Amino acid sequence: MRLLNSASPLPGIHRGYQWREALPALPDRPGAYRWFYADVTAGGYSAVFIFMLGSLFSPRYSVGSRRGALPLQHSAVNFALYREGSRRHWVLSEYAQASVGQAGRELRIGRSRLVYTPEGSVCMEVDERCAPFGGQVRARLELEPEAPAADEVQLVPGVPHYWRALAPRAKARLEVDSLGVSAEGRGYHDSNHGAELLGTRLPGWHWARLHGPEETVVDYHLPGNVAPLRVTSGGGETRAERGPLLGDARRTSLTGWGLRVPQHLSAGSAMMAEPRLLESSPFYARLEARRGDVDVMGEVADFQRFHSPYIRWMAHFRTRVERRA
């Protein structure tokens, strides 16, 4: 693989370093987006937190962006909690605004917030109701990064979509007040952004994040003749590489929605058999596999499918739309 960057103390994501920058610039053009993703494995629980500007799950943004709708008008909070592979909570709430505070270190959507602290930790707090008509959920994730961030990389040459592993390996504490959950484990945090709707020229991707005893590996596979990306983080170092392009030899199967997903989750040299299907929809699947002290989280996304009128209509039933914060 070709090295994209070497380990370095980039914006404060390293124990002992302070943040050298606040939140990145928020998207401000129709079709653009940015989201902040984190996942955590803690005991028998797994959870995913996503703060979205120009929500990739929004049927309203899919249509409205072509008519001039702006990303912040379709901001969203997504939270999912799983226990031993079974979903316990699902939150997807969409808002018509988002705000930035604390000298650019806090992103607030509704009553939920993402904070980058001067001490170098990442905090995500969700205060929401389950979608579409469920009960109250209060959840909190705190990450203490154990290695530097990777440099930002362009997913496909010449196409304006970018990814950055901000805290690829971190100590994590998960609290979910509504279920009395308090657990410690390992977390991961990244950000994606782009200047056009996903599915326009980038049809989709699949990726997997593997936490092992000593290091974390993230493999990011892209469609067509585009070399895959790999981020490796451990021992206080992080490196990112691209390629070589070897083709996709995965064994796959079809979900009940007809989406093709891997039969085995893999990242780096490790392969896990029979992953659990945590989420399944016509355009998106989330998978997880565990074995001993190794945990793998994976995702398959087909954004071109999402823009079909039928699937956009179905997406309304998994979302709450808040008219005010």
H/E topology pattern: EEEHEEEEEEEEEEEEEEEEEEEEEHHE
- Report the uncertain regions: 5-20
Count up the domains: 1
Strand content: over 45%
Proportion of residues in helical segments: under 10%
Distance between the termini: 46 Å
What is the tally of helical segments?
A: 3
Calculate the mean pLDDT score and round it: 87
Keywords: Membrane, Transmembrane, Transmembrane helix
Transmembrane segments: 35-57
Protein name: Hydroxyneurosporene synthase (CrtC)
Plain-language structure description:
- It is a single chain.
- The protein has one domain.
- About 5% of the residues have low confidence.
- The chain is 5% helix and 53% strand.
- A hairpin with a 2-residue loop joins strand 16 and strand 17.
- It is mainly β and 325 residues long.
- It is globular, with a radius of gyration of 18 Å.
- The longest helix has 7 residues.
- Strands 2, 3, 4, 5, 6, 7, 8, 9, 10, 11, 12, 13 and 25 form a 13-stranded mixed β-sheet that branches.
- The protein has 3 helices and 25 strands.
Question: TL;DR of this structure?
Answer:
This protein is mainly beta and 325 residues long. It has three helices and 25 strands.
